[in-house]
Amino acid sequence: MFRRLKPQGQKIQIFFDDQEIEAIEGENLAAALLAADVTHFRSNPVSKQPRAPYCMMGACFECLVEIDGQSKQACMIEATVGLKVGTLKDISGVDDE
Fold first, then answer.
1. What is the pLDDT of residue 96?
2. 5 or 1, which is more confident
3. Can you list the domains of the chain with their CATH numbers?
């Protein structure tokens, strides 16, 4: 559903959940992941439903991912060579057990 119109820039490799993904250097990380058909960035802490980018401008926080052990908004990060990104596992702060 999401595709690049005319990719401009150098192609680079990033990693999402240890899967190698091709991106364009400097492009919005959320856009790069969507272009690679990644549709599950995190789960809703209450319903456990998958969430993905909505506003693409940093207001909705639906695009939260894990980078270096911290939650980050993918739409506010640029894709850089070798960036390692993961699905955000839990943002509720409450254990399910």
1. 43
2. 5
3. 11-85 (3.10.20.440)
